[in-house]
Amino acid sequence: MYYIIVNKCVLKRKSNVKKLNSVKAVFDSAGIEYTVRLSESKESARTIAAEITSGSGNSVIVMGGDGTLHDVLNGFVNFENNRLGLIPLGTGNDFAKAAGIPVNVKKAAEIIVADKTRKIDFIELNSGLRSINAVGAGIDVDVLKRAYAGKNTKKSKYLFALISSLIHFESYEYTVEYDGVEEKHFGLIGAVGNGKQIGGGIKVFPEAEIDDGYLDLLVVDYISKIKIIGAFIRLMLGKINAIKQVTAVKTKAVKFIPRKSYTIQADGELYDDTPLEAHICEGKLNFYMK
Fold first, then answer.
1. 190 and 256 in contact (C-beta within 8 Å)?
2. pLDDT of res. 109
3. SS3 for 236?
4. How far apart are alpha carbons 90 and 92 in whole angstroms?
């Protein structure tokens, strides 16, 4: 059975209702039996996903953005016998980019109808929280807070928020542990990625692959205001690893130890006082892809 999970709020827009009808038409043409489930909150999406995946042989199709995908992943309870798919309907759609899923909903639905899945990875924190795209603390959180605080609903809000954060954000001290290495940093960001980008296209993990069995660890140390413009240009070109102050390595697990309490972001969702101690869950998720 196929279950399409879509946030009830997004269907207030007539354009999104039309997109849902386009997806239904693709499924109907393929003779696929499906049910649309409307989520009303983060908790609702997780509960629906848990209910569906407590059984076997089901396909959970998220019609939404990175946030809804994040919530559904955190509700999954039976990975071996159920599958997950994505039809992008968000603002940033960062994981869709990493997975090669088109933002055109009809084309995305056709990938699911083709019935091809791949085993892919996801990130899991020691707290039990899961992330399919990226987890981080530092300037990425500051960017999200600025983006969410404004009235701009377009993808450009992340770019404007990033520029503001680069000007105003203050670096902080933390320790990073991975592969027997312990490093102290005074940095802008500490993050791990499964996907390649965050914030609607900011390529902070250019070498990441969603099925390589590794976390892509990124640490960016303090960059002076006078050098921040050059660093910003490299970042937007997907060449962040060329910046002198960047540490970028692949690892199976990592632990960040900050000197003060902090907020983390996981797939764009914010969590206060959640330790950023993560490992890769290798090839555990059956995901619809080309």
1. yes
2. 98
3. helix
4. 6
